Amino acid sequence: MYWKWKVNGEESLVPDAVLVDLRTDTITQPTQEMREVMVNAIVGDDVYGEDPTVAELERRCAELVGKEDALFVASGTMANLIAIMVHCNRRDAEIISGDNAHTFRFEQGGVAQIAGVQSALLRNKKDGTFDLNELRDKIRVDSDLHEPITQLIIVENTHNMCGGKVLPLDWLGSVQNMAREFGVKVHMDGARVMNAAIYQKIHVSEIAKYVDSICFCLSKGLCAPVGSILAGSRNFVAKARRTRKVLGGGWRQAGFLAAAGMVAIHTMIDRLEQDHIHAYKIAKAINDVGSHLCSVDLLNVQTNIVMVNVDRTKTSAKELLERFASVLPSDSVRVSVRACSRDPGFFRIVLHHGITEELVQAAIEKMVMVIKEFEENIQSIEKIPTYNVITN
Ligand SMILES: *Cc1c(COP(=O)(O)O)cnc(C)c1O
């Protein structure tokens, strides 16, 4: 496998290096079966409701999550935005979410920018939940005329920035009860909710029953090339279909993509467990080095995401990631590992269909080598005595 890497900004070729790309699961390639069904898909104009393959995918996905209806949309971001716009159907609306929610952090503020809705935030706990007493305090429904009105609570499952954490069902039940008590709706950003169902060994409808609407990505661990599903009541989906159109999301012969989506839900859900096993293997191997530079909270590795903590007093995630990715002429381990980081204090790795058992071993070999190398370098620097140089 060939991969380009950068040295001082210059790209060069490392012809004999194996690439293990653990940045995210959106990079997954469609399977051979997906490619074949796409070529042969029966399609029509979906804006006119005339694409039988899209209709079939929507019907099956609604069934899968146990909702009345479902809508095929271009992305998870679009699914969340539509859900927010449909649930918040008044101008003084407020939503409540965790402060690490994807909808708050990584969707360009679409909640405010496009939906015109205010966000109230609750501190996300490490397990992806937030405190229920704080939630109760934040809900504003009997508002006086100074205040906005809470229309929607958003939960994220699995929780991306909390490291692929699966929301406990009893917590979801409590959120649902409180929402009902106040007449507020609940939306689940379930981009990776199939991973949650696999982890909990339950049918995904057992999770979706706690929320009014749910979306999930076909294009992440499920390997479809494009698309997400947004599901809910018949009435909700009818409004969602209308809202999708104003966002420019009315697509025509989308059945080509829906055909791949159908293969995704039929063939790619059960295998997610493999990604979870691989994630744990890598996490454990990092911890087994016994270095303070990189550590993983193993109890928190539940699905396909691993958050690796970096000792920022000694190095940064960026420096580590650069070394993971580079293959020097003198390196005996000819492996390039890519991961992603938004913070000097941690980096994230994501397992997916493209990462075989062999590649897992290769990644472990490289990462362990780099962590040991950093450890040695830091120790040798710390051994050098420092002198106070007085100038002037
Ligand atoms: C990826 C992701 C999304 C957005 O999906 P896109 O298809 O990339 O727009 C939303 N929520 C979570 C939790 C995600 O991980």
Could you walk me through the main structural features you see in this protein, from its secondary elements to its overall organization?
- This protein is α/β, with parallel strands linked by helices and 392 residues long.
- It is built from 14 helices and 15 strands.
- The chain has helices spanning 32-40, 52-65, 76-87, 102-105, 110-113, 132-138, 169-182, 193-200, 205-208, 234-246, 255-267, 272-288, 317-325, 357-383; strands at residues 3-7, 10-14, 18-21, 69-73, 93-98, 118-122, 149-156, 185-189, 213-217, 228-232, 294-295, 305-310, 335-338, 340-343, 346-350.
- Strand 1 and strand 2 (10-14) form a beta hairpin.
- Helix 2 (52-65) runs parallel beside helix 11, helix 3 (76-87) crosses helix 10 and helix 12 (272-288) runs parallel beside helix 14 (357-383).
- It is globular.
- Bound molecules: pyridoxal-5'-phosphate (PLP).
- Residues 21-311 form the Aromatic amino acid beta-eliminating lyase/threonine aldolase domain.
- Its cofactor is pyridoxal 5'-phosphate.
**Class per helix and strand makeup:** alpha/beta
Secondary structure: number of strands: 15
Which geometry do the CA atoms define?
A: globular
Rounded radius of gyration (Å): 23 Å
- How much of the residues is beta strand, in percent? 15-25%
What is the assigned CATH homologous superfamily of the largest domain? Type I PLP-dependent aspartate aminotransferase-like (Major domain)
The total count of helices amounts to: 14
Please tell me the total number of domains: 2
Which CATH architecture of the largest domain is right?
Answer: 3-Layer(aba) Sandwich
| Low-pLDDT regions | 1-10
CATH class of the largest domain: Alpha Beta
